[in-house]
Amino acid sequence: MHDDFAANLRLLCSYYPSIADVCRRLSINRAQFNRYLSGRYRPRNVALRQICTFFGVKEDELAMPHETFQTLVQAGRKAAEQVPAGEPAWPAALWTRGSEGMERYLGRYFEYYRSMAQPGKLLRTLVCLESRGDGIVYQRTERLQPRPGGRPCHNRYEGVALKLAERIFLIDHETINGHELTQTILFPSFQSRVSRLSGLKLGVADNSERMPCCVRVVYERLDAQMTLRQALSQCGLLAAEDPALDPQLLEAVHNDISPGEHHFRARFL
Which residue numbers delimit the HTH cro/C1-type domain (predicted)? Predict the structure, then answer.
């Protein structure tokens, strides 16, 4: 039994219209989520991280004694409510305005770009955009190659996405080691169905050099039927000219500068 965990989870759910609404936002089966709420089961690692990211809490906080956790949550909500009415802090105002028109972009994507740490390789990561409160958040997961005989390890980034003046801005931070911020700017899609988005990514090479780099990037929307496990299994380093990939995609992430260009520029697909 996990009484404190279940009580804490029920408290967080109480700030939403219904349990069904929470399950829909989390994409978690209602019957399975009810088992967590009853204390009969505790979520496994992937589901637990998903729940913590959604509610904005840490795993160890969710396991606190219920009275302690309740005080923590109430203190956080009280601080949020102290912003004067009609005078929101500019990040809050930007957060709300930047979510307008973002509904059509929610979902999962493969992200492709030339690896900053391993030149000559192409990196495929998984990005999940979802609505939270009045804004849009996302998680980006890098699947790193295992050592011989080992298992793959992951880097996870959490961030916010905003659409401002016909550009999509994504800013995130690395959550495991806390050693990187990245920014991505994408062109929106002007087609009826969002399939691919292109733009630029600015970050730091994940090696001892830690060289700031800018690369072209493509987001490819995934079929809703693909499971999270299936998507993650396809992430990792690829050959720079992988014949299994669409030549148009490979061309879109090629980091060249055309004659007459004075800056490294994004390109439409």
Answer: 18-62
**Beta partners for 124?**
112, 236
Topology (CATH) of 3-82 = 434 Repressor (Amino-terminal Domain) (1.10.260)
Contact predicate 116/179, CB 8 Å: no
Computed over every residue of the chain, the mean pLDDT equals: 87
DSSP classification of residue 253: T
Rounded distance between C-alpha atoms, residue 212 and residue 215, angstroms? 10
> Does the pLDDT at position 114 exceed 90?
yes
Whether residue 15 contacts residue 25, with contact meaning beta carbons closer than 8 Å, is answered with: no
At the topology level, CATH places domain 103-252 in Lipocalin (2.40.128)
Q: How far apart are CA 232 and CA 227, in angstroms?
A: 9
pLDDT of 1 reads 47
